[in-house]
Design a protein that fits this description.
172 residues, mainly alpha, 9 helices, 0% strand
Length: 172
């Protein structure tokens, strides 16, 4: 298993959440770019290059890309603060287009199941996401089963490379 830096894991998390509904919305791209710009973790970081690399990998490897992301998350040793930061990135991305699809909630539940932070801690920061935390991932075998179902039943669309929105401009 490769080693991944936390900033790359955050970006992969946001990217996978964005793509989990089969559509990349410009508002999702804009929120991810904004979160990266505001975070000190992303110094010396070319958002456009990094996000387009992820688009290319998803287009090329589809289900294997998502499986690899889950494997990375499983193998990562994160602090509670890092887990909360990862949850923030995921939730902001999921909510950016103002439409939360079930596939996004299911994807978030897959992420959440791999983290150690308590539901109480998450709800103290995000009290409105209780439905995201409802227990329907009972066992590791069940998690594996729905992860496989998510990957098996999904034909990933081919995504266009992302053009970043320049500050001060409005894109239709």
């Amino acid at each position: 298993m490769d080693h991944i830096t936390f900033d790359k894991l955050l970006l992969k998390t946001a990217f996978c959440c964005m793509a989990s509904d089969g559509h990349i919305d410009k508002r999702e791209v804009a929120i991810i770019e904004s979160m990266c710009e505001k975070s000190p973790l992303f110094s010396d970081f070319n958002f456009h290059d990094e996000i387009n690399l992820l688009v290319t990998k998803l287009n090329t490897d589809g289900k294997e890309f998502i499986k690899y992301y889950f494997d990375l998350l499983d193998k990562s040793s994160l602090t509670e603060e890092e887990e909360m930061n990862l949850i923030d990135f995921a939730l902001h991305t999921i909510n950016a287009d103002e439409q939360v699809e079930y596939s996004e909630v299911k994807f978030f539940k897959n992420i959440r199941h791999r983290l150690k932070v308590s539901d109480d801690k998450i709800l103290s920061v995000h009290p409105d996401i209780e439905i995201y935390l409802e227990e329907d991932l009972v066992t590791d075998s069940f998690l594996s089963k729905i992860t496989l179902q998510y990957l098996e039943g999904t034909e990933f669309p081919k995504f266009e490379l992302i053009n970043t929105i320049q500050p001060g401009t409005k894109e239709e």
